[in-house]
Amino acid sequence: MASLANHPTSRDQAKVMNRFDITRRMIGLLHHDEAVIGGIGYTNFDLWAASEAPGGRRPQNFYMLGSMGLAVPIALGVAIAQPRRKVFALEGDGSILMQLGSLSTVAARAQNNLCIVIMDNGAYQITGGQKTMTEQGADIVGIARASGLARSAWAADEDAFVELIGRSLTEDGPWLIGCRIDNQKPVDTTERDPSRIRDNFMRGLGVRP
Amino acid sequence: MAEATDASRVGSPAWHEIVRDVLRRHNVSLVTYVPDNVLRPLIEAVDADPFFTAFACTREEEALGINAGAWMGGLRGILLMQTSGFATLPNVIASLSVPFSIPTLMMVSERGTLGEFNIGQSLVARTMRPVLAALAVEHHTMTRLDEVEFIVDRGITQAVATMAPVCFILSPLLTGGKVFAK
Question: pLDDT of B42-69, one tens digit each?
């Protein structure tokens, strides 16, 4: 993918960024009711925090409360159901390592309205910071490319992240954007009310009036 | 296998044709699956019908997640799998389908009983109904051709209306099961 040539293909070339900061930057770029699926853990909490707005939190976000590893499959399902809406999956490195097969399913479906964002700090941070395999040699962008996701790259820094998200909004995917992040605690904690989360999400997607 | 049971009923549709037609009537157009030999005629039937979007997934959990997302996006789906695949699902049924009130439709080809030749299948099969009962998931075992339409039709209706999962179990009595290959 020549058009991605200026973006790193290797994890160690990517700058370590802050999860809340880049999540907020991403949400700031969403102006067309794009759906966002937050995996579990701090990825989820910072999506909740970054989505706070004067008029209330954006309803097109879905927050998992378990089912570790299913952010990409859930996002793929939304993307299949609503092919004209852009759908994002926010997932941690520990989570995506549990469901690597889903990357090849997304590639096989060629789901062009889907963008996967991986928040990779090399650790199971919420359970005490135990190392994941990405801290021991595994490279999620490399795995994604080998799974058939040609539009996969590491965000070199914040500006590159914003550029890649912008491109995923205007160009066909499926996309995968790898983000190295630090070990800062999340800014807030997601409200654990699944009925409300699901109902808000379905209304935000126009499935319910 | 399946055809052995159905062939004696000349003129009546096979179980997989009935299931396909009920799915279509209920607008269940997404079919995700991890393949199984007994499910093969149903998979081939939906693959051949442009009404359906059908594809294999790498794991049953993944397929359940896809169907959950699709349902929230306004598209109904069903997950096809065999008994051993169901055994990988309790965590996601308990943490996604049930608390979020998602009508997860599941159909399981029952292995592990009535002539099973693989000891692993026979052992894991014993976990299926206790798990379904522990999670309070509505489930029905279909043993006869004349009950398939009623069970699938009513089961889907109830799952959607009550926003709860349902599991349809395809007994070897209905399908012929998988027979021992020497």
Answer: 999 999 999 999 999 999 999 999 999 9
**Cβ pair B96:A99 closer than 8 A:** no
Beta-carbon neighbour count of residue B78 at 10 Å? Answer: 28
ipTM of the complex: 0.97
- The yes-or-no verdict on residue B11 having pLDDT over 80 is no
Q: Is residue B129 part of a domain?
A: yes
Distance CA B51, CA A104 (A): 24
CB contact under 8 A, B72 and A73: no
Nearest-CA distance B28 → chain A (Å): 12
Residue span of the structural domain in which B80 resides = 15-173
Tell me if A209 is assigned to some domain.
Answer: no
Q: Indicate whether B73 belongs to any domain.
A: yes
Contact A101 B62 (CB under 8 A): yes
* 8 Å CB contact of B59 and A77: no
Give the closest of A65, A101, A207 to B58, CB-based: A101
pLDDT single digits (tens) A173-193: 999 999 999 999 999 999 999
A-B C-beta contacts closer than 8 Å: 122
Number of domains comprising chain A: 1
Look at chain B and report how many structural domains it folds into: 1
Nearest-by-Cβ selection for B73 from A69, A81, A101? A81
The pTM for the full model equals 0.96
State the CATH number of the domain containing residue B73: 3.40.50.970
A106 Cβ under 8 Å from any chain B Cβ: no
Measured between alpha carbons, how far is B136 from B98 in angstroms, rounded to an integer?
Answer: 9
Three-class SS of residue B7?
A: helix
Q: What is the pLDDT of residues B126-179, one digit of tens each?
A: 999 999 999 999 999 999 999 999 999 999 999 999 999 999 999 999 999 988
Apex CA B16: angle with CA B33 and CA B66, to 5°? Answer: 20
Specify if A125 maps to a domain. Answer: yes
Residue A209 C-alpha, separation from nearest chain B C-alpha, in angstroms? 12
- The answer to the question of residue B180 being in a domain is no
Residue A205 to chain B, least CA–CA distance (Å): 7
Which token pair is B125?
A: 């099969």
Contact indicator for A116, A174 with CB cutoff of 8 Å: yes
Answer yes or no: is A49 within a domain.
yes
Note down the domain range covering A38.
Answer: 2-204
Establish how many alpha carbons lie within 13 A of residue B112's alpha carbon, considering only the half-sphere containing its beta carbon: 21
Chain A environment of B75 (Cβ under 8 Å): 77, 80-81
